[in-house]
Amino acid sequence: MLANFFRRLKIPLILTSFTAFMYVDISETSFYINNLYHCNSKYANKGFWEKEYQDDVSQYDWYVRYEEIAPIINKFIHNNDNILQIGAGNSTLSEQLYMENYKQITNIDISSEVVSQMTEYYKEKNLNIKFFEMNMLNLTLPENCYDIVLDKAGSDVLLVGRKPFKTYRKFMIEIERVLKKDGKFIFITLFSNFPLNKVIDKEKFEVIDFICKEKYSILILKKK
Question: Which of 36, 86, 94, 220 is the most exposed place for a label (fewest CB within 10 A)?
Fold first, then answer.
């Protein structure tokens, strides 16, 4: 069922191999209309995800599995890093990182249903991975605490409302607050046309890389 999510999602994906494309200046209204986010507002609703996880308990990884992205993200993550995964859902990503000896992992998700499921799952497998119910727009976490914030598809849902740029800027304020100085934000996203100039404060973040693949992109930022 979750696997059908993006088959139902009415967002045209325009891919490019040119990093410069993400720097295109685009208005919030144009971004909203051109990407048809007004058709997909339900995906930003907590109730929608509660029902999804109640109806389907099978684990699912958005866009790509760990094995494919590992060579990229492992360049930026160290084994002793304190890692926060945003909108973790029931992905296997944390478990696979844990098995690669990344032992300090905290997951958050807005769905109490998936938090309950995955907490029990990690307990049964004897994995010391934390999982909390939390809104990514209001992180009840300490300041300057994490070396890495990892986000695979989680914050894509913030770009489905009428004010996607405003909402995403609020999210980035929270990311900047919880990251340590020189900490990295690694974002695996559907969009090659990510509105960088509209949502990222260049005084607070340095763009390390933006990698466009066929079905996803990886944005890597460093907190100044």
Answer: 36
